[in-house]
Amino acid sequence: MSGLSIHGLTLRFRGLVALSNLSVAFAPGSIHGLIGPNGAGKTTLINAISGLVQPTAGRIEFAGRDLVGMAPHAIARLGVGRTFQHAEIFADQSPLANIMTGFDRVSARGFWHDLVDTPGKHRAERATRANAEALLARFDIARYRDAVAADLPFGVLKRIDLARALASQPSVLLMDEPTSGMNDLEARQTVAACRALAREHGMTLIVVEHNMRVIMAMADVITVLDHGEKIAEGPPAAIQRDPGVIDIYLGRSRGHA
Hints:
Layout: E1 4-13, E2 16-26, E3 31-35, H1 42-49, E4 57-62, E5 65-66, H2 72-78, E6 80-82, H3 95-101, H4 111-115, H5 119-138, H6 154-167, E7 172-176, H7 184-201, E8 204-208, H8 212-218, E9 221-226, E10 229-234, H9 236-241, H10 243-250
Parallel strand pairs: 3-8, 3-9, 6-7, 7-8
Antiparallel strand pairs: 1-2, 1-4, 4-5, 9-10
Helix pairs in contact: 3-5, 3-6, 5-6
């Protein structure tokens, strides 16, 4: 299993330094949290990994490749998936249909099976439907199976988005605020489901999260960013005790709330 690593990553927007000489290694099969104040560079980092923005300098190494300069769809084909702060859902489709689209990257169907009515096509469709329904159950949203996504609460849409991203069986999944819009029970269920799926399939989860209770319960390792720089890294218990991290979150040294 190949790991993902960041080496000397710098990213500037019109003179503003969003990431500054950042290096981070994400262990294969781990759940790695990214935290820090607003504007610390967390979402910028996962946008860079997924190819949505291009770094000014540095390398992003995965599966023996440097991802810098690659198109987002090419990075996705290598096995890097992602979710977004705002759930990217087909609003006019059901949760089941949304999740089924996530299996397209790993579907064994060929062009001929999709073009004509073959037994192989029907077998693949049945398998995809069964796997999608299993994810609905895993994220406790089976009762919404055939609803119109546009009519559902935001917290449910976030779980649909997560389930669809996991359906593609990525090696690395970038998760941007996966529990936003959820109540405490939904957040706990989502954390448990993500942890279980990561362990079962050996996926690396890289999680941006503002809910400290969620990330402390979910992550194996946490990296703390501030002004695009790494200021601390370690297991959750050590991060909670780190004086520099406490200082930033209390806002004494750099003026953050």
